[in-house]
Every structure is written in C-alpha cells, then in structure tokens.
Amino acid sequence: MDWDDMRVFLALARGESLGRAGQALRLDPATVGRRITRLEDGLGRRLFTRSHQGYALTDDGARLLPHAIEAETALIAASDAAQATGGTGLSGQIRIGAPDGCANYLLPQVVAAICAENPALEVQIIALPRVFNLSRREADMAIGVSAPEAGRLSVQKITDYHLHLAASRRYLAAHPPIRDLQDLRAHRVIGYIPDMIFDRELDYLAQLGLEQVALSSNSVAVQFNWVRSGAGVAVVHDFAIPAGADIQRVLPDVFSLTRSFFLIRHLDDRRVARLNRFSEALVRGLRQEVVRLQAQVENAENP
C-alpha cells in the first residue's frame, strides 16, 4: 500500500463523492473510482458502500481511516521539517474556518499582517456560519465561539470580546428614543434566523427578552450592513463598529454581552511546526486586534 492510494482514500472518505474527491485531488472522478477499486481489490475488502447518496465508509474503511490520517500528518510534518531548513519564513497553504463576524472584521487585517511577514504563505479564509469538521480536513484550523467537547481536537482560548446593541445615528435620529430595553419593542430589531443559529452562544434574543425580529439573517455581515444602512437596531460585535462610521452603541450600560473565540485544531496537527507557528501568530494578532478595535469604540464614546 503506498501513500498515493491513501491520499485518494482520504479524499473520498472526506468528500463522500467521486466528484468532490476528484476536485480535491484535481483528478477525474472516474480515475478516483478506479483507484479506489484497485485499492479495495489489493486489500481484499470493501472500504466504501456505494449508493445514490454517495460513498460511505464500511467498518473496514472506518478502521483504516485513523491510520491514513496519522500517515498524512506524519508526511505533512516531514515536509514541514524539510521546508524549515530552507528559511525562517512560513510557506505553503493554510486554510482557516471561521464564523463570519470574525472572518469579516478581524481575520482580514490579522492574516494580511502575517502574510506580509511571510511572502511565501498562502492563507484561505472560509467564512461560514457553522461548525467545521477538522477530521474531514474542511480546514487546517477553525475559530469557534464555544469550545467543542468531543473529538480529537486541541482547543485554545483566543480572547473574550464584547457585544452591545447598536444602530446608525441616522436611524436613532429618525425614531423614538431608546431609554431602556422595553423601548426596543417599538423599533425594528435585527438578528439571527432562529432555526439557523448553529451555536447557543449566538442566541442573543433570549437575553433581550425578544422572541422574533423584523429583519433576520444567518450572516453577521448582512446584519451589520442592515444596521449601517439605517434599517434598525441589532446586537453588534464591538470590534465591528469601527467599520461603520455612523454606528454607535445603544444602552451600553444596560445591555452588554461577553463571548469568546477559541482556536480549534486537530490534535494530530500539533506535531506540525508550521501550523504551530502560524497559530501562535494568529492568536497573538487576534488578541491585539480585538483590544485595539474595542478601545477605539470606547475612546470615541468617551473622548
């Protein structure tokens, strides 16, 4: 059994279809199918069951999967060690999964600074409002708003951050004053689509005593743009407020939330020095950026 066969096996196990596996490997789907058949014939056992829904691991395939992942990690670590002898900078591709609040308002500037110091580094940011599956290599690392409690994962708290009610000055000037939380009932409130909240830490409505909102989206960026356009009031990340010049906090002394970001990695990847170095720079940069942006908001309100 050679590594090339394992690479195809892993791609199909993660993608669950010949098309997705072929796309990841840059191979024709028919070629992926032939390679898997050859591997199964060589082992004398079926690794996948085929159906209209796609490819699913058999018991034999599930037993092989952790060994294939271990081999992949060892190969990545070996390649990483070889590259390290050629210079001190980071290189290669790293993919980060993140909720879109972090992906839109923190990661761009933090990652840009890291890449400026490491010109050979390529970073991909996947901004999706969901939990990422690191075992399927959807990303090399992920940022979450809660710490997962299961799986072979390494979890590091990055930082706390704050959220407050916010609205554009234009909206506030055109609508009745908001003196307490009860006044929100006379205003258009913006928030998440309730049945698309993927983490209980994002369920802000309960904290406000509201059961529904007038405008809703599963995207933080969409909610923020509604606020910026003067559409209503929303719970907004303090670190996002500087991105909207006309936005100000509402009732900051009455309503405030504190949440946390966590860096989540596959446990086996702790052996990969390149990912360790990148994660250290990422955590350091995110901590500094949250402090900088939140201080900017506080200073604007208390000059």
Largest sheet: 9 strands, mixed
For this structure, what is the CATH class of the largest domain?
Answer: Alpha Beta
Catalogue the unreliable spans: none
Q: Can you name the CATH architecture of the largest domain?
A: 3-Layer(aba) Sandwich
- What separation lies between the terminal Cα atoms? 67 Å
The proportion of residues forming helix, as a percent range, comes to 40-55%
Strand content: 15-25%
Describe the structure concisely for a colleague:
This is LysR family transcriptional regulator. The protein has 303 residues and is an alpha/beta fold.
What does this structure look like?
With 303 residues, the chain is of the alpha/beta class. It folds into three domains: 3-84, Winged helix-like DNA-binding domain superfamily/Winged helix DNA-binding domain (Arc Repressor Mutant, subunit A, Orthogonal Bundle); 92-158 and 260-301, D-Maltodextrin-Binding Protein, domain 2 (3-Layer(aba) Sandwich), CATH 3.40.190; 160-258, 3-Layer(aba) Sandwich (D-Maltodextrin-Binding Protein, domain 2), CATH 3.40.190.10. It has helices at residues 3-15, 18-25, 29-43, 59-84, 100-105, 107-117, 169-174, 205-208, 220-228, 273-301, and strands at residues 48-51, 54-57, 92-98, 121-127, 141-144, 153-168, 189-191, 215-216, 233-237, 247-250, 257-266. The strands form two sheets. Strands 3, 4, 5, 6, 7, 8, 9, 10 and 11 form a nine-stranded mixed beta sheet that branches. Strands 1-2 form a two-stranded antiparallel sheet. The longest helix is centred in the C-terminal third of the chain and has 29 residues, at 273-301. The radius of gyration is 23 Å and the shape is elongated. The N and C termini lie far apart (67 Å). Residues 1-58 form the HTH lysR-type domain. It comes from Roseinatronobacter alkalisoli. This is LysR family transcriptional regulator. InterPro entries: LysR-type_TF_proteobact-type, LysR_HTH_N, LysR_subst-bd, WH-like_DNA-bd_sf, WH_DNA-bd_sf.
